[in-house]
Amino acid sequence: MTEVMTYDERHFLEVKALWQEAFPDDAPWNAAETAIAEKLKLQPDLMLVAIDGDRVCGSVMAGYEGHRGWISRIAVSRSHRNRGVGRDLLAEAERRLSALGCVKINLQVVESNSEVVEFYRRSGYRIEPRISMSKLLRR
């Protein structure tokens, strides 16, 4: 049985390894050293980990800017997939966002990642007709 809890610095190395497994071709600005440090500056209680025994088996970052909530960087180790870990992480992130007053959550998925798209569909998320745009401010 896994437990979802707020991230703590002691989880860093395991989350970093998890992200390397889950996001092997990720951009440098998404590196754990950068992303987690920045997340902990704002709403650290929305950086969550799933623990099985004493090991990290999943993580998610959520955020709320007063208008919309966001889910990002959700990852579950291969050894724990299809066991409800992602569902539990998502449910706790949604619970915490709702407690802040959030009424709508957005997220982005790489279009070709059909397995993850289906996970979110089963969790009640729907595809909206939007265009996702970005601008890199620094490298």
TrEMBL record:
The keyword Acyltransferase applies. It comes from the Bacteria. InterPro entries: Acyl_CoA_acyltransferase, Bact_Acetyltransf, GNAT_dom. Residues 2-139 form the N-acetyltransferase domain. Keywords: Acyltransferase, Transferase. GO terms for molecular function: acyltransferase activity, transferring groups other than amino-acyl groups. NCBIfam families: PRK03624.1. This is GNAT family N-acetyltransferase.
